[in-house]
Design a protein that fits this description.
This protein has 115 residues and is an alpha+beta fold. Helix content is 38%, strand content 14%. The protein is built from 5 helices and 3 strands, in the order αααβαββα. α4 (64-72) packs across α5 (104-114). It starts with 7 loop residues before the first helix and ends with a helix.
Length: 115
């Protein structure tokens, strides 16, 4: 058998340890000790309880072509983000926003381009 049934008292410390680590450590690093994505210097959010989303909002039509150019040349994904994804979100304070989803790997380049 691959698994065995355990009591709540037996599993609680392991459950709590995994829950605590899932705030900042991806599943790969937790279970295997390292993450290939992190080793390459990129962000990995697999298995995290909270994820960060970068959303470009406001009057973006005037810079649309510049944003699209940055996403097409995004080093991490090699152009797979060329199609800009429009998202609708509700912020913690309840306010709703609509914008374009920007991958973390493209943020620095995008900020430099739009300055």
């Amino acid at each position: 058998k691959k698994y065995k049934k355990v009591s709540n008292d037996e599993c609680e410390p392991s459950w709590n340890a995994q829950f605590k680590s899932s705030a900042k450590i991806c599943s790969h690093a937790y279970w295997k000790g390292n993450c290939k994505t992190k080793t390459m210097g990129l962000d990995c959010e697999v298995g995290l309880r909270r994820k960060t989303y970068n959303v470009l909002t406001g009057s973006v039509l005037s810079v649309w072509s510049a944003v699209e150019a940055v996403l097409t040349n995004d080093g991490q994904k090699k152009g797979t983000h060329a199609k800009m994804q429009v998202v609708r979100m509700r912020l913690d304070e309840g306010r709703r926003i609509v914008g374009t989803l920007i991958p973390t790997s493209a943020m620095d380049t995008l900020v430099r381009t739009l300055k």
